[in-house]
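Everyone, carefully examine this protein record:
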Amino acid sequence: MTATPLREHWWGCAAALEDRIRTLLPAGWRVTQSKDLAGILDQAQQVDTVHLVPLGTAVVQSNARGAISTMTQRWGLVFAVAAAGDLTGARQRDRAGPVIPTVLTGLMGWSPQAGWGPLSLAAAPGADVATESFAYYPFAFEVTAVLTA
């Protein structure tokens, strides 16, 4: 699936990102869109899931008339794995460890379509979180697009 231009849909690259992540995941893993970071911890989890979360938009530059703006969208990826009572985190890291670099490098430099810039790795939206049931490993990407009046 290709991305929808920013002018037509504010989160137009979400479906293309989800499809791209799906192609990078090993069997047994899934990807889902989540509305926010807080909801990920609260919802019923399925193991071995990558959550795709919109993290906001920043205006990078606008022309003098304000009719053309370069926008950067941030997208979070949160890898959720079952903790299965392992309070040391070793099993979760062993499960997610090989998957994380495969997904990250598969997105770095990839562009959803013409009009959207290539993805670049950005600062994570928070620290790793571990509960008795799950471990969460957050990462973020930025992608740039131009919005014209």
